[in-house]
């Protein structure tokens, strides 16, 4: 039965504001942590309904994940998103429902929406309980927001809801664990299961090439003073042979105000400079590499400083995609035979030089998707091996069932097949994962025998600039063609004119999905031309 009373009492304990106007955006709900209480009730309720609606072959509800995080946002923000049974994001056609529930001002309105769905799905599930897992990053508000969810679940009998509270998790861990609860072949649904899967596959790949962990590049990892620090430490404790190869900086999770401050993947990518805690001497040491995670450890960027000049050199999501593509396409050519289709998915933010490299040098198909992980993920799934990365470092490689079936045929007599199958274990199949991506990068460098400098030289980024323009109403900006062209307002032809006057020029305008602003990207052959193009387009938008 629908637990009307229990739900009402928790709803009223965390009442919504006067005129709620929340929206489930690119990465769920994300805002000032003090405003999230009522949203937690809405999200936890919707997650129950989602679980009841996702039945396995025995008509039992599958496990749904709830992740409380605001990624690279400042410490005082927080957010929450729902993770589907296979570890992917809540489907887009459910997002408006999340928005509607969060914007109910009274329990009456709320019940009117949720009760019919709950009743319908619960009866299809023969009243079996919904199943949930929940986790949070290290933000100060995390435990409080998490307890609103558990308070709601605890107010129902366990005939209605069964949940597992993991407290502190990285975003990719929560995705992995959610999937593992529903798919035993994926892994053991615990943190140690996750660490074992990563270290086993990583060490087995090295072993196939007789690479001892001692000869790997030494990596300094900036963990953004976030959850990644605790998790990387825990991972290294379970893999002692790797612990001397990874040094952790920015690991202060005890002081929540340090999260993402002057450090982390977003800081490094946006400012194109070293984070606190890594100086240019450290960053220019031989046989070494630096890396930054973001606040919830689902994004990775790498970098180093050129030795004589001490110049900062970024290896962003585009470069990571190219490195992994090089390894994977090399392995594919070593297979006895195959008809697997590899593709690379990027967004409009990908540097034009990286896209040219994909198309002209790697001769791989390149697809442009809208910004936001779910869009890239969706496109990548269309390939047998889909490599997707946002320039900001969020990405992964998806290997299809056809891939597994084809390669199993060669097991035992093709090293390349064995390595490819292990890469499927090493690289998180659910979502971008800084730790798993970092291990894949380190393995790729060792196998391809390239160092950071040579990796950086694969191609040279065109000068580019990203500007933020605050406008009256960003909803007036409507894009098409994977956000590369504007439909409204009618300024696209003017942008086209400016681009045509610029050597290797490219520019686009898109409304942000996370902030009340419009973003303008410009790229050109020279720094000077790039700045001019950026200025011209910003001027059109203002
Ligand atoms: C969200 C997205 C991120 C994207 C960013 C763009 C997820 C999990 N996160 O943080 O991938 O790059 O939004 O922000 O999808 P913007 O729309 O404000 O430019
Ligand atoms: Zn993140």
From TrEMBL:
Into which EC class is this enzyme placed? isomerase
- Please state every residue range assigned to the domain named Alpha-D-phosphohexomutase C-terminal: 502-539
Q: Could you give a GO molecular-function term held by this entry?
A: phosphoacetylglucosamine mutase activity
Reactions accelerated catalytically: N-acetyl-alpha-D-glucosamine 1-phosphate = N-acetyl-D-glucosamine 6-phosphate
Q: Which residues form the Alpha-D-phosphohexomutase alpha/beta/alpha domain?
A: 63-95
Q: How is the cofactor bound?
A: Binds 1 Mg(2+) ion per subunit.
* Protein family per UniProt: Belongs to the phosphohexose mutase family.
User: What is this protein called in UniProt?
Assistant: Phosphoacetylglucosamine mutase
Q: Which organism is it from?
A: Pichia membranifaciens NRRL Y-2026
């Amino acid at each position: 039965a629908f637990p009307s009373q229990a739900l009402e009492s928790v709803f009223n304990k965390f009442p919504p504001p006067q005129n709620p106007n929340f929206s489930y955006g690119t990465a769920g709900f994300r805002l000032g942590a003090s405003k999230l209480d009522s949203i937690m009730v809405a999200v936890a309720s919707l997650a129950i309904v989602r679980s009841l609606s996702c039945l396995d072959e025995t008509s039992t509800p599958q496990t749904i994940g709830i992740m409380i995080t605001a990624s690279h946002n400042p410490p005082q923000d927080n957010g929450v998103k729902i993770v589907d049974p296979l570890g992917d994001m809540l489907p887009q056609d459910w997002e408006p429902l999340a928005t509607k529930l969060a914007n109910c001002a009274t329990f009456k309105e709320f019940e009117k929406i949720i009760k019919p769905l709950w009743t319908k799905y619960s009866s299809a599930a023969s009243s079996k309980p919904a199943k949930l897992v929940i986790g949070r990053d290290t933000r100060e508000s995390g435990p409080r927001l998490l307890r609103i969810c558990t308070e709601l679940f605890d107010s129902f009998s366990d005939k209605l809801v069964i949940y597992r509270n993991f407290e502190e998790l990285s975003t990719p861990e929560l995705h992995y664990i959610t999937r593992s609860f529903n798919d035993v072949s994926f892994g053991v649904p615990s943190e140690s299961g996750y660490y074992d899967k990563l270290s086993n596959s990583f060490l087995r790949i090295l072993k196939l090439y007789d690479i001892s962990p001692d000869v790997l590049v030494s990596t300094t990892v900036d963990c953004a003073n976030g959850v990644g620090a605790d998790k990387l430490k825990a991972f290294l404790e379970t893999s002692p042979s790797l612990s001397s190869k990874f040094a952790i900086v920015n690991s202060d999770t005890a002081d929540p105000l340090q999260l993402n401050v002057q450090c982390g993947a977003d800081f490094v990518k946006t400012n194109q400079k070293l984070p606190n805690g890594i100086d240019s001497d450290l960053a220019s040491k031989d046989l070494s590499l630096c890396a930054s995670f973001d606040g919830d450890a689902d994004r990775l960027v790498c970098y180093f400083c050129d030795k004589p000049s001490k110049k900062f050199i970024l290896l962003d999501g585009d470069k990571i995609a190219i490195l992994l593509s090089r390894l994977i396409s090399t392995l594919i050519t070593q297979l006895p035979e195959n008809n697997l289709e590899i593709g690379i998915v990027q967004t409009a933010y990908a540097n034009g030089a990286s896209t040219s490299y994909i198309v002209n040098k790697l001769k791989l198909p390149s697809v442009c998707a809208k910004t936001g992980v779910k869009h890239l993920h969706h496109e990548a799934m269309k390939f047998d091996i889909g490599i997707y990365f946002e320039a900001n470092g969020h990405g992964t490689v998806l290997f299809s069932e056809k891939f597994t079936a084809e390669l199993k045929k060669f097991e035992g007599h093709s090293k390349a097949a064995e390595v490819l199958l292990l890469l499927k274990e090493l690289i998180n199949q659910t979502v971008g994962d800084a730790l798993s991506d970092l291990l894949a990068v380190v393995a790729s460098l060792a196998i391809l025998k390239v160092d950071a400098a040579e990796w950086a030289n694969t191609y040279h980024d065109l000068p580019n600039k990203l500007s933020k323009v605050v406008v009256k109403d960003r909803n007036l900006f409507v894009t098409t063609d994977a956000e590369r062209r504007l439909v409204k307002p009618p300024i696209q032809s003017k942008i086209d004119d400016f681009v045509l006057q610029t050597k290797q020029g490219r520019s686009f305008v898109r409304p942000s999905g996370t902030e009340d602003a419009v973003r303008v990207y410009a790229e050109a052959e020279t720094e000077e031309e790039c700045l001019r193009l950026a200025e011209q387009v910003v001027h059109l938008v203002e």
